[in-house]
Design brief:
The protein is mainly alpha-helical and about 625 residues long. The chain has 24 helices and eleven strands. It has a three-stranded antiparallel β-sheet, with helices on one face.
Length: about 625
């Protein structure tokens, strides 16, 4: 914090990202606050504070400015910190919810962090601090806190945050590589012509010799002359085309930045701050220390190793593309006024930037990550072949393609798409898929709700269920073969005469008709002699459905239907894997080998006589259940 002789009070900021800024507190309303605000904001942006990057400090300053301007606009403003009341804080929150609901909660959070600093906390009433520390609700819709719903957007301009479909991502990557390839070939062709001109100008024809002469001048001075025949205007398109022979230009940034984000699977902030410093590892990989923001103080750096790949494949590997970017930006970095530790350095028209000079070589993200707008969606729409999103569904769900909209391109959507694809490659195993984020952040902010990952998860789950069902059928078939051929199902009347005519011995038919052979849900023709062991039966009643001694008549249908419903209820209580393993073979036998033998009328009649209990808990041994 510094105070000038003229009464100005400023906070000088020097962040951990190497960027500097000056925040003039004296320009805020309510002079009685300035001393305390400057002290508190200096602590927030100091070495021990939480705002240690230029972007974070600017964001915190913006919230402070909005708060003080609101307080200064009140009919009876609090002229000093001690006059601030909880009602003032509530009114500010209501004002922000009405004007900018998306950032209202963040403004109150930043105010709390500022007001709890010793420089300001001692001057503010304790009830104000308590009020600021209350938990604020996070509305699901931007206008939820005001009682009105956010109007749905129907013009196709809604900002998307989900990832791309497979088709959209393939088209986007092809376009990024095509544009990056043209930029690479353009600059390499210019460098090749310059080398040939410097080696032997007379070996070139007149046109190439004139162009080589201008390229030599550009390489030495960094200034781009007006090509012969062009208008003597610094904004002439011919000058921009000539500059692109040796230098990257601002127009080249969108495809290169987006491709770097896709290949490295990092967010836009990290890609903008790629450093020049690196280390080669046996010409197979490159080691780079990158910046990963929003991890907390002293945890922004991360060392990554990127594969270089085979020659000519630099547009497909992160390490190879990083080295290509070093090559393409080398001349502008050398011509830049002061050495910058950042990789990105381009030529720009000095008159267009308001510098009063014809040409300038700048590091566009040296002072601020937002200093140079990238506009990815504008790049996608302005290409010779614009990028389009997948066709929208027909109106009111009608079949056939609907409206085709331009593809919305952003770093966030690319990052989400890369996270989704990596998670799929890892088979959905989050500990292996979590690369630059923790598992909760990966799931909550990238995977949850993404249509691609949802569709893939449904497909995987469907395949798993099909595999589990097939395994249950095979287990049932093996048990049937081992236990004498499976249950004997006798549809039709269940009296002794009908059962005898169906092939049962007279004594067994009388016992079956009287229910003397009944077990849990069926009857057993010979309980003392199991077909597999030739010993008294020791298996569960659920295993009866695979046994050759099992006898099922129409009288057993009500209990079998009750068992079927109980198994369906148990399916909602267990995981699919556990359910299929424990109950799958019995369910297959009931649905496939038993119920199909009875007529719809018999099943409908049995449906009305189902018992209330299915005896499933008694048929198992719960103490042995895993």
């Amino acid at each position: 914090m510094q105070q000038g002789a003229d009464g100005t009070m400023v906070v000088a900021f020097h962040g951990d990202d190497g960027r500097r800024a000056i925040f003039d507190v004296s320009r805020l309303p309510l002079p009685g606050w300035h001393q305390a605000l400057a002290a508190a904001f200096a602590e927030r942006t100091g070495p021990a504070g939480g705002l240690r990057t230029h972007a974070a400090a600017r964001t915190g300053w913006g919230s402070l400015v909005r708060l003080m301007r609101f307080l200064g606009s009140l009919p009876q403003p609090p002229t000093v910190p001690g006059e601030l009341t909880p009602e003032h804080v509530t009114a500010f929150h209501a004002h922000r919810m009405a004007t900018s609901p998306a950032t209202a909660r963040q403004d109150l959070t930043r105010a709390r962090l500022l007001f709890t600093r010793p420089g300001l906390c001692e001057q503010v009433a304790p009830q104000v601090i308590d009020h600021l520390r209350r938990r604020l609700p996070a509305p699901r819709t931007p206008m939820a806190a005001t009682g009105t719903a956010a109007p749905p957007k129907t013009d196709g301009t809604k900002r998307l945050t989900s990832g791309y479909s497979d088709g959209e991502l393939a088209r986007l990557m092809a376009a990024l590589r095509a544009d990056a390839s043209r930029i690479r070939d353009r600059i390499r062709a210019g460098e090749d012509l310059l080398r040939r001109y410097q080696r032997d100008p007379q070996a070139l024809d007149e046109e190439d010799r004139a162009l080589g002469r201008m390229l030599e001048q550009m390489a030495a001075t960094g200034q781009v002359p007006t090509p012969p025949g062009a208008r003597p205007n610094p904004f002439a398109p011919e000058r921009l085309a000539l500059a692109g022979r040796l230098f990257l230009t601002l127009r080249d940034l969108p495809p290169l930045l987006l491709l770097a984000a896709a290949l490295s699977e990092r967010n836009g902030e990290t890609v903008k701050e790629l450093p020049v410093a690196h280390r080669m590892l046996d010409d197979r990989a490159v080691e780079v220390v990158i910046v990963k923001r929003r991890r907390g103080a002293s945890r922004w750096s991360e060392t990554v190793t990127w594969e270089i790949g085979a020659p000519g494949r630099e547009l497909h590997t992160p390490g190879g593309f990083y080295l290509l970017l070093l090559e393409l930006t080398a001349r502008s970095r050398r011509l830049h006024g002061s050495p910058s530790p950042l990789l990105w350095c381009v030529w720009r028209n000095g008159h267009g930037a308001g510098l009063g000079v014809a040409d300038d070589h700048c590091a566009p993200f040296e002072h601020s990550l937002r200093g140079t707008p990238i506009l990815p969606s504008a790049w996608a729409a302005d290409r010779r072949r614009p990028l389009l999103a997948d066709p929208q569904p027909g109106r009111n769900g009608a079949p056939g393609p609907g409206q085709v909209l331009p593809l919305q391109v952003s770093f966030n959507r690319i990052k989400t798409s890369m996270e989704v694809r990596r998670t799929k490659r890892m088979g959905g195993h989050l500990p292996s898929a979590a690369k630059s984020n923790t598992m909760p952040v990966l799931f909550r902010h990238y995977l949850s709700g993404d249509p691609v990952i949802t569709s893939w998860a449904e497909e995987v789950l469907g395949e798993a269920l099909a595999d589990a069902e097939q395994a249950a059928r095979l287990a049932h078939e093996r048990a049937v073969q081992a236990a004498g051929g499976g249950p004997r199902v006798l549809p039709g009347p269940a009296d002794a005469t009908a059962l005898t005519e169906a092939g049962l011995a007279p004594s067994a038919a009388r016992q079956a008709a009287d229910g003397a052979l009944d077990t849990g849900w069926s009857a057993c023709a010979d309980h003392d002699r199991h077909p597999l062991t030739q010993q008294p039966c020791q298996v569960s009643f659920l295993d009866c459905f695979h046994c050759g001694n099992c006898l099922i008549t129409r009288d057993h249908l009500p209990r079998l239907l009750a068992l079927s419903h109980a198994l369906a209820q148990r399916r909602r209580e267990l995981s699919e894997e556990q359910w299929w393993q424990r109950y799958g073979p019995a369910w297959v036998a009931i649905r496939q080998d038993i119920l199909t033998r009875f007529t719809p009328a018999e099943l409908e009649q049995a449906q009305t006589h189902q018992p209330h209990g299915a005896l499933l808990d008694l048929a198992e041994n719960p103490w042995e259940t895993p």
